[in-house]
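Sample intake sheet
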Amino acid sequence: MFAVIVGIVALAVGAPQRPDLVQRIYAAGGEFGVAQAEKVSDVRQRSSSGKDPYTSTAVVLLPVRAGEKPVTATVTPTTYEPLRPGDPVTVLYAPAHPRLGAVAGDEHSLGWKLRGETMPAYMRWFLVAALMLSWLLVVNHLSTNYGFRAFARLSGKDRAIRGGYTGVGGHFPTEEQKFPLKSKHLEIRTEAGRARFYADTGESGLPEAMVDQQLWLCWDAHRGSRGSRLSPRTTPAAMVFDTGLVVHGMMNVGQTHSLNPSAVPLKQTEPPMKDDRALRVFDPRSHWPLYIEPLALQTCVVVIACAALLTFDIPTGWRWAAGVVGFLGSCAIAGAVMSEGRPTKRDPRGR
C-alpha cells in the first residue's frame, strides 16, 4: 500500500512528456540564453510573507545572430526581486527559430523538462527516500507485531506450555497498558495462570468452535532473554492446537519469563511438536476479500482511474486534483482492509 501511495504521488508531481512549447523548442535545437526584459506587468508575490519569489509577465528581447531582426517573446519569469525593464532574463529558446517563442527558466528549473525526464532529480531522490522509509516502517511493524518468525521451524530454544483457548480479552491494568501491542488479545488458560496472546484476529477473535480446545502455547524463549534496555519487549509465539491448526502471534517477554518455570522444551512435549504430523496455519484475516465493503471496491476503481488519468499530459490543476483524490483513496482502502472491526458485508458462502 505504501508503494501505491508513493506511486500516486510520483504520477501527480511528474510529467509524462515535455510541455508542448518545450517540445517544439527542443525539436528546433533549443538552448538557454539571456534575454532582456522590455515590458514588465502583473508583478506579484506568491504570498504576503515577503520571503517567496516574485512572478511576473514580461516581454523579452531574445538574443539573435548578428544581422537578424530582433524577436520578442512573452514569458513568465520567477525572480527573487521584482523584475524591471532592462533586467536580464534567462530563457529557453531556439536560436535557429526564435519565433517559436521562449520559456523562462535556466538549467536548474527547466533542464529536466528539456531532457524529457518525468521530474527533477531532487524529487526522484525524495520519492526514493520516501519509499525506503516506508519499507523501514513496514519492517519495523512486522518485527514488532510478528517477529519475523515462522514456527514451522522450531528450535531447541523454543518453549511450550499446555493450555486451552478461552476467548478474547480486553484491557488490563497500568502495567499492561505499556505493552507495545494492542490491548485486545486472545486469552489462554494454562496451569501457570492466564496467558495473553496477541494476534491480528479482529474484535471477534477465533471461531467459537475453537473455544476450550487444547493446545500447546509455544514461544521463542531466546528473544528478549537478556533483559537489557534495548532488548525486544515482545517475542514471536504460536498456538498449536491438537487439531493441527496453528495461529501465529506475539507475547509479552515479561509474561513468558513468568511462564518459563512451568514450560517445557519442545522436545519434551507430548505429542512431540517436531513429529511429521501436518500442521495448517489458521489466518482469520485471509478471507478479507469476502468481507470488504462495496464502497472500498468502488474506491479502488476511483484510484485506478486517477492513476490512469495522471499518465496523460493534463493541466496542472487537474493533475493535482487527481493526485489528491488518488492519495486519499489509497489511504481509505488501506484503512478499510486493515480495520480491526469486521465489515458488515456477509460472506456469500455463509461462513
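Comment: Confidence is low (pLDDT under 50) at residues 172-181, 340-351. The radius of gyration is 32 Å.
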